[in-house]
Amino acid sequence: MKRFFSNLNFTVGFTMSLVVVLAAVLSLVWTPFDADKMNAKNRLQGPSWTHPLGTDQYGRDTLSRVMTGAVSSIIVGLVTVAIGLSLGVLLGLASAYFGKFVDEVIMRISDLLFGFPAVLTAILITSILGPSMINAMLAIGIFYIPVFARLTRAVAMTLWEREFITAARAGGVGEWTITWRHVLPNILSPLLIQGTVQFAVAILAEASLSYLGLGTQPPTASWGRMLNEAQTFMSRAPWMAIFPGLAIAWAVLGFNLLGDGLRDTLDPKMVRMR
Amino acid sequence: MIPYFIKKCITLLLLLLLVSITVFSVLFVLPGDPAQIMLGINATPESLANLRSELGLDQSFWAQYFQWLAQLVTSQGSRSLNYDMPVNTLIVSRLAVTGPIALLAMVFAVIISLPMGIYAACRQNRPADVSVMFFTQFGLAVPEFWLGILLILFFSVKLGWFAAGGFPGWTVDVWGSFKAILLPAFALGVIRASILTRLTRSSMLEVLREDYIRTARAKGLMERTVIYTHALRNALIPVLTIMGLQLGQLLAGAIIIENVYYLPGLGRLVFNAIGQRDLPVVRDVVLFMAAAVVVVNFIIDLAYAYIDPRVKLK
User: Fold this and answer.
1) For residues B29 and B137, what is the distance between their CA atoms, to the nearest angstrom?
2) How far away is chain B from the Cα of A194, in angstroms, using its nearest Cα?
3) Would you call A234 and B198 a contact, using CB atoms and an 8 Å cutoff?
């Protein structure tokens, strides 16, 4: 643990992410006001002691909505990374293990997915399937499959050549057991690092889709959606356009730094790509 | 150079063909019957069937695909269901907005990122480097549409220097049109700049460790010459790749920022067309965007060979 917290990136990222997670968990049991309750008398109020972040066009408390918005963001992050991890790792392992034709097919398909304009494809998918949080998660998650597949393939390929795997094989251990006991544990840390980064990307992507009206649907609070609504009232209620955006930037920055910190501590050899 | 060029051209054509098949098949499964949309919900089954055969919708997948391809190649093009105009004309008129935005955004990105990346690399781990890296972390975390909104809030609402959105049109008001794309291009550029800055920095750091840099310094060249003539040229190759990718993505991915600023660009065109199930527009614009990415990458590939003659040999 001490090793992690001596890294500045990790400490800052961990603290920032923790704030987001705590806000989301807290919002499940308590928010300053009911996040969805409209109150026409309180419309478009500026920041005050009762409403620290002001209110929106329906008189809803912005702080409460930013807090519940964190729940949507975290769910989207978790589910999309889960989609990418589960299928990506499977395909990546298959690619590395079977090689040749299987590898070629899987890698070329992932090339094709990479080549397509992601925003456009996500918009297409969400509008074909209908705008909703679940479909937005699918649209984002699909793009994560090749990301994790390539990473798994790259790491697993070098692992399978290593001596301890040959030793296990010589000892009569089955291929499945080798994969489960020796290969998977060794690719966990790169997957964890990549997963944290993709979690941050998912928060950004969900916000963009929700901003376009294709993600989380009202009345459920979502940061992107709040910014969309804020634009109409920008000259009268600028705070509406500031706080949800700050929340997005905070969360993404937090998880990005957390990913960087994990990479610094878990994998000092890994070349910084960005 | 010539065989390399021919080989690259053939790959380009094959890729474009593959992209067209993918675009066509993805949109083939799109729910929503164009004939139904054109005639409305009160259409009789007979008139629907007539229109379907007129549009060729009753034919097989491959027949429809080759018909579409033939239309594209003979530059007849398809017609939009909603605008009742050729899609080509629509694309050209919308590209007059998106194209300049994408280029201007890249200009901003390059102006910001190259000096900052080089500066940070020359002062690795010193306060200047750390603050540049800190700035880029922000650029990576801030959603571009929020940056767009903040720019409107400051420059349009507070200072009143720019219109809050909309586009007068190049033929009507050149200066006004330029002002209209300045803020969105800046928002897009700043975000791209943070990726490019990090890349320029790491690429420069790698090159600065090379032997030939030590040689250049040892023979007494000025630090400025070492950095700008010897190091930068070699460090630029990976940066150029990402710049190409970004330019291609900008042509396709300005959808969100065009929505923030209500700009009649390609992104808004396709976004609205998807909502209205205007299939011919969606199909042709998506193909155009995907093809733009492929073609820009092709140009970058050729540019490599020019910058770094070693590339051809591989």
Assistant:
1) 40
2) 15
3) no
